[in-house]
Amino acid sequence: MVSFYDAMQLIVDRAESLSTKMTVEDKAEVTKAGAKVFEQALAYEVRNRHYRHRDTGEDPHLADSIVMKNKNIDGVKDGQSVVGWERSTEKGTHTKGYIANIINNGS
After folding, report:
1. Contact 95/86 with Cβ under 8 angstroms?
2. Which one, of 11, 18, 66, 71, lies nearest residue 41 by Cα?
3. Average pLDDT over residues 75-100
4. Which end of the chain has the least Cβ crowding within 10 Å, N or C?
5. What is the pLDDT of residue 101?
């Protein structure tokens, strides 16, 4: 018969092999699947709360500007995925991330 300690250690070992010992490619695949679902849910919420039927011309609506990247926030592929709006990389330029921040925080 297996002791309680051995049974718990087996559970921990199995959980570690499925999570912390995953390759970067495997982690990226898992987080990408979750990020795609979140991207769809975020677009749905933005459309329901902020969408107005108006002519936006060349500038797409905030709900149509959501991006998903299979990299971390710094652009490094380490198994993370991010969802949101592009951030401004140049001083003085405004992107959809800037607009989303104003809507979120108020102005």
Report:
1. yes
2. 66
3. 77
4. N
5. 73
Read off the tokens for 79. Answer: 């198994």
Give CA separation, 33 vs 77, 83, 95, 96, in Å: 15, 12, 26, 23
Residue bearing the bigger pLDDT, 98 or 47: 47
Higher-pLDDT residue of 24 and 62 is 24
Distance CA 18, CA 33 (A): 16
Measured CA to CA, the distance from residue 24 to residue 80 in angstroms comes to: 9
Number of residues that make up the chain:
107
CA-wise closest residue to 95 among 70, 69, 59? 59
Query: How do beta strands 67-69 and 82-84 pair?
Result: antiparallel
Q: Label residue 99 exposed, middle or buried (CB < 10 Å: 0-12, 13-18, 19+).
A: middle
